[in-house]
UniProtKB/TrEMBL annotation:
PROSITE patterns membership: RCK_C
Segments passing through the bilayer: 6-24, 31-50, 62-84, 105-129, 135-155, 167-191, 197-217, 238-270, 282-300, 312-337, 343-363, 375-396
Localization: Membrane
Protein name: Cation:proton antiporter
């Protein structure tokens, strides 16, 4: 009886993929990205050392190709296209900033243009000195930035939501998108393909069609019903999209990874549920992608690579080009940030991996470079990924998120706003109470956490003078509904995240809700309170007691993402009551993982809850 291809090599690679993250954790080498460790493990078991894996095994070739495709898909999925619509007017003051940032998209696009210009200059110099001749390929390799390294590093440092973190992220996103497009044109120009380049417009046309179809399916109630249990129609749809676009890309003479990257961009634009994103990450980083990276290491032949004397010239020159092409353009950020933060940002942007591997593999396949040159490019990327995240962590100042406070601006000086301002001021909350001087006899003195501001009129100039909209929460509690409405629109224009609006006129409720403001009504609150006292007097006493109140915390700290509650390091006087995750309401227990964007309801002492808010919400 004849047997098919042996699965021994596959078994070795899968076992290596399983053991690699375990070894990293046990050896406490957290500075080493997992993907880099997988390449190193591949080098050990591959041609360079043990040679126990058959690189020509058909199982491994198929799964490695799928891993490569899935890696490019997830690279597209990681791109947050909302970042391109950010406005500088929404920024709040920061102790870190020397001056307000300009339009973030313009700033980061300018930085990437500088990176591209320097990459071209270094490519010309390397060609002039006879180091390497292919200028187009060098520009792609030097200018690319690895989102797969930048995003986890920013998350681990809790910087992804900070202003510097957003600048770094957007530069990486633009670089990832631009260099991927450049690589597609490079492969189309130099590959021995009979299809003309204009056929790529067919791929773009189908991508637009699939995006429109996806929007329709997203809104279909019937499709949503099929997205549960064993059907998992959303996951099936994503895989169908990837395969169809990969097939289309090959059909028009482009590289299959371009189709996979476009598929990732389409899914990102469709804003999938976090549950689907987690499942796709599990498919990719749990199985396919580790096999690809291990096989990259298996194919590296270091002995023959170092027998070529050019390796001792090309790799140092490439590493220097990687660093200088990123470090010099980001120096423009010295106008807004200190030297340490800007230098650290330059080093982190030097990290590059996935697209260099893609470019090296593609260039070797189409005969533009040799196997040795491909190995040199990949090895330089691996070295950069080992060094740059470590340097970033060492250089970037700690304590960016220390002394966090929630700034609240309350408008109106009356029997409702004054007691509430006094009760919340202190600790986590800094409160400004703003009122018209003609409508108040207040003689109270300002304190560290509660300040009183009399203004001559509710104009933008008067409110800007006291920084009224430099706040996380604005409460419109004045007795005059016209004032509340006018000031609410000013706060919305200035990008205030939460606007709480007092409504005494029932006819105004609909307009307030349509604007997206959080509504509270004194009449409705009084009815609710009276009914609660009648039906559940003990419950109302429990809710009104500061020591037993129920609090809500938004989980924004990536450090605790996926952490089980039993491993949660804060174990003070507190009880978790409920977790809201999207449309799902969970009863928490020890094996419940925390996810970013969870809303956690808890009860406990106010001091401890405020400490948790500082840690989890990262205001």
């Amino acid at each position: 009886m004849e047997h098919g291809p042996s699965v021994v090599s596959l078994a070795i690679v899968v076992l290596a993929a399983l053991l690699t993250p375990i070894l990293i954790s046990r050896l406490k080498v957290s500075f080493l990205p997992v993907v880099v460790a997988e390449i190193i493990v591949g080098v050990i078991i591959g041609k360079s050392f043990l040679n126990i894996v058959d690189a020509s095994d058909p199982w491994l070739n198929i799964l490695s190709t799928l891993g490569f495709i899935f890696l490019m898909f997830l690279s597209g999925l990681e791109i947050d296209f909302d970042a391109f619509t950010q406005k500088s007017s929404t920024q709040k003051k920061s102790k870190v900033l020397k001056r307000p940032l300009p339009n973030t998209l313009v700033l980061t696009s300018g930085i990437f243009i500088g990176i591209l210009a320097l990459s071209f200059l270094f490519a010309l110099l390397m060609r002039g000195f006879g180091v390497f001749d292919d200028i187009f390929l060098l520009v792609i390799i030097i200018s690319t930035i690895s989102l797969g390294v930048v995003v986890p590093t920013l998350k681990e440092a809790n910087l992804i939501t900070t202003q510097m973190g957003q600048v770094i992220l957007l530069v990486a996103v633009i670089a990832d998108l631009a260099t991927m497009i450049m690589l597609a044109f490079y492969s189309q120009l130099y590959a021995d393909a009979s299809q003309p380049i204009w056929l790529m417009t067919i791929l773009v046309g189908f991508a637009i069609l699939f995006y429109l179809l996806g929007r329709v399916m997203n809104q279909s109630h019937f499709i949503k019903q099929l997205n549960n249990g064993t059907m998992q129609i959303g996951i099936r749809g994503v895989f169908a999209l990837i395969i169809m676009l990969v097939a289309l890309a090959e059909g028009v003479g482009a590289e299959n990874i371009l189709g996979a990257f476009i598929a990732g961009c389409i899914v990102s634009l469709l804003k999938p549920d976090q549950d689907i994103v987690h499942k796709l990450d599990s498919f990719g980083y749990g199985f396919f992608i580790p096999i690809f990276f291990i096989m990259v290491g298996v194919d590296l032949d270091l002995p023959s690579l170092f027998s070529d004397s050019r390796v001792f010239i090309l790799i140092p020159v490439l590493l220097l080009a990687f660093l200088l092409s990123k470090l010099i353009p980001v120096m423009v950020l010295l106008r807004y940030f200190d030297v340490k933060r800007v230098t650290a940002a330059g080093f982190l942007l030097t990290s590059t991996l996935s697209l260099i591997i893609a470019a090296a593999v593609i260039a070797e396949q189409i005969g533009m470079i040799t196997n040795a040159e491909s190995g040199m490019f990949i090895l330089s990327a691996v070295i950069a990924c080992i060094i740059t995240p470590v340097v970033f962590r060492q250089l970037y100042p700690e304590g960016e998120n220390e002394d966090r406070v929630i700034n609240v601006t309350v408008f109106g000086n009356n029997q409702l706003t004054v007691p509430v301002s006094h009760s919340i001021a202190g600790g986590l909350y800094h409160v400004k109470l703003v009122f018209h001087k003609n409508y108040s006899d207040s003689r109270e003195k300002s304190t560290e956490n509660l300040s009183f501001h009399e203004i001559p009129e509710y104009s933008e100039e008067a409110l800007d003078e006291i920084d009224a909209f430099d706040a996380d929460i604005v409460v419109l509690g004045a007795n005059d509904s016209d004032i509340n409405w006018r000031v609410a629109k000013m706060a919305e224009k200035r990008g205030v995240e939460r606007i709480i609006y007092r409504v005494d006129d029932p006819t105004q409720e609909r307009a307030v809700k349509e604007r997206g403001y959080e509504l509270f009504s004194t009449m409705l609150s009084s009815k609710t309170l009276l009914r609660g006292l009648i039906e559940s007097p003990n419950m109302m006493q429990l809710l009104s007691d500061e020591e037993t109140s129920i609090y809500e915390i938004q989980m924004n700290n990536y450090r605790y993402d996926e952490m089980l509650l039993r491993n949660f390091p804060f174990t003070g006087d507190i009880i978790f009551l409920r977790i809201l995750r999207g449309q799902e309401s969970l009863v928490p227990h020890g094996d419940t993982p925390l996810h970013v964007d969870d809303r956690i309801f808890m009860t406990g002492t106010r001091e401890y809850v405020e400490e948790l808010k500082r840690e989890l919400e990262l205001y």
